Every structure is written in structure tokens, then in C-alpha cells.
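User: Just a sanity check before I run the rest of the batch. Below are the C-alpha cells for the first item. I only need the designed sequence back.
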């Protein structure tokens, strides 16, 4: 029988890699100007525009919620995170996803355990609550219980695989805290909408209460948006982090 407990690994982080992108502020400009200039909009963008004028135009689009020009860009991310994070991702249906399959490959024994900085206790009613740090005892019981449970579940998974049970059946015992990986592709408009819901920010027009683990992913994606499309990002920030 396989030795499961020694091979099980634990993490408290997520990773987000920008695999490829075709995304710039110019994509927004030519897409918006085609409505008045037709095919000349590409030529106008290629010759360059004053940055202040471009920033003002993008801010106008963002402010008045002319959203479609922000869809002419693509970003593909490789995300490594616990499966429960991906289940929240699937609620964003404008995105495209391809996730590793537990039917076709043996899943690696890597599990999420909340780190010491993770707030554990929810206070308040639904819709008006906050999370506060747990006690040392609460952190201890979470850490020990998660590790013990994941080790036992992976041992059961390996036991079934060793007995010849199909991977798609054996995975039944694995918790949603096991890590998975996926490619996630979106446009800038979809990403801004995702960020408005999956980050908590004091400048946001509308409150959001994301689970911390998906917020960790969102924060890394936000950094890529800011670098790829600085004028778009500034306009989104300046208009209350509301997607157009």
C-alpha cells in the first residue's frame, strides 16, 4: 500500500501566472472610435494620441458605462488554488475555464491549510458581518484538524486506487481543500467585474464580502490588469471600481 501521510503537502497560498495577453488601452480606444470613424479608428490609434486625451476618453467610457470597448482584450491566467476557490470562480460565466481532471490523472497530495494570518471567526448577521482573528486555540484546532482530515482522506483515496478503483470514483473521498490548477481566460470588462466582487476595497462604490482565498487570487490578477492597461485601471479605480 502507498504511504500517503508522508507524501501529503500543505500550502497556505495561491499562485496566479499570466500565461498570455493581448490587452492594452489602445484596444479600448480603437474599439470605441469605430462607432464614429469606421475602419479609420485603427489608423488613428496607430499614430498615437495624447495620453491625457486618451485617459479622458477612457474615463468617459468607464463613467458612462459604455462597456463593450473593454471587451476587445484577452488575458489567460494559470491559477493554482484549492478547489473551493474554483467553485466560486464558476459563478463568473463570461470567463473560459479548463481545469485539471481528477478523472484522467492521479491528483497530487497538496492541500490548503489556513495560515496564521487567516481570520477565523465571523461576527454579525449575513449581509453585515466581519471576520476577526481567531484565538491561538482556534488556530491550533483548525491546523491540526485540517491536516489530520486531509491525510486520512488521501490515504483512503490511495487505498482505492491500489485496489483498482477508477480515479473518478476514488476521488469521492477528497475534500475541496485539495489544490487544483486551471487556465482562466477573460477580457478586461469581465475581469473588472470579477475584481469588483472578489476584492474588498475602501474606494469601492458597492460593498463586497469575498472569501479571503479567492480575494488572494483576485489581488494577483488586479496587479496584472494595472500593468497591462494602466489608463483603464485608473479609470476603473476613479469611478468606484464599478465595471462598465
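Assistant: Here's the designed sequence for the first item:
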Amino acid at each position: 500500500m502507498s504511504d500517503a501521510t508522508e507524501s501529503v503537502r500543505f500550502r497556505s497560498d495561491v499562485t496566479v501566472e499570466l500565461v498570455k495577453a493581448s490587452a492594452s488601452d489602445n484596444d479600448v480606444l480603437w474599439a470605441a472610435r469605430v462607432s464614429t470613424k469606421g475602419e479609420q479608428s485603427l489608423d488613428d490609434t496607430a499614430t498615437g494620441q495624447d495620453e491625457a486625451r486618451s485617459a479622458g476618453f477612457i474615463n468617459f467610457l468607464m463613467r458612462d458605462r459604455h462597456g463593450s470597448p473593454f471587451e476587445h482584450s484577452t488575458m489567460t491566467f494559470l491559477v493554482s488554488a484549492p478547489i473551493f476557490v474554483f467553485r466560486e470562480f464558476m459563478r463568473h460565466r463570461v470567463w473560459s475555464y479548463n481545469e485539471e481532471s481528477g478523472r484522467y490523472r492521479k491528483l497530487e497530495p497538496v492541500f490548503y491549510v489556513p495560515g496564521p494570518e487567516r481570520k477565523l471567526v465571523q461576527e454579525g448577521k449575513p449581509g453585515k458581518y466581519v471576520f476577526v482573528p481567531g484565538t491561538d486555540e482556534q488556530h491550533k484546532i483548525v491546523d491540526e484538524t485540517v491536516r489530520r482530515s486531509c491525510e486520512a482522506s488521501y490515504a483512503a483515496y490511495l487505498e482505492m486506487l491500489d485496489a483498482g478503483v477508477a480515479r473518478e470514483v476514488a476521488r469521492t473521498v477528497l475534500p475541496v481543500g485539495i489544490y487544483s490548477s486551471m487556465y482562466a481566460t477573460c477580457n478586461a470588462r469581465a475581469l473588472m467585474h470579477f475584481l469588483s466582487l472578489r476584492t474588498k476595497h475602501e474606494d469601492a462604490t458597492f460593498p463586497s464580502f469575498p472569501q479571503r482565498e479567492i480575494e488572494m487570487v483576485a489581488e494577483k490578477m488586479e496587479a496584472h490588469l494595472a500593468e497591462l492597461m494602466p489608463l483603464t485601471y485608473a479609470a476603473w479605480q476613479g469611478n468606484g471600481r464599478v465595471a462598465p
